[in-house]
Amino acid sequence: MKYFFSIIFFALVITSCSQSKSKHITEFSQSDIKNTLLVDVRTSEEFGLGHLENAKNVNVLSDSFTSYFDSIPKSKTIYVYCKSGGRSAKAAEKLTSLGYNAINLLGGYDAVKENAKN
């Protein structure tokens, strides 16, 4: 019985450690990026059509995605977003697994544009 509970405990610890954090993109403000990094993980073409102020463009589908962050301290918070939230969720998971404090901005750039209309 002890063995069973030990396995459950370790499984919970492992899965909770690999989960990335999130925040809705409409709750994000430029004041949130003090001492942090804002990364748009879309393609350069998508980035060229519009992006958040102060965002760096690092395509999550690029082979060099993870190497871009080699010079970024692990203590720095990284906010990531994409068009609607799918790619940024994967990017945040990848960065979290590498030891970064990554926050996925839910809703993506589409939500920013929609919010600006209202």
TrEMBL record:
<dbReference type="InterPro" id="IPR050229">
    <property type="entry name" value="GlpE_sulfurtransferase"/>
</dbReference>
<feature type="domain" description="Rhodanese">
    <location>
        <begin position="32"/>
        <end position="117"/>
    </location>
</feature>
<dbReference type="InterPro" id="IPR001763">
    <property type="entry name" value="Rhodanese-like_dom"/>
</dbReference>
<keyword id="KW-0808">Transferase</keyword>
<dbReference type="GO" id="GO:0016740">
    <property type="term" value="F:transferase activity"/>
</dbReference>
<protein>
    <submittedName>
        <fullName>Rhodanese-related sulfurtransferase</fullName>
    </submittedName>
</protein>
<dbReference type="Pfam" id="PF00581">
    <property type="entry name" value="Rhodanese"/>
</dbReference>
<dbReference type="InterPro" id="IPR036873">
    <property type="entry name" value="Rhodanese-like_dom_sf"/>
</dbReference>
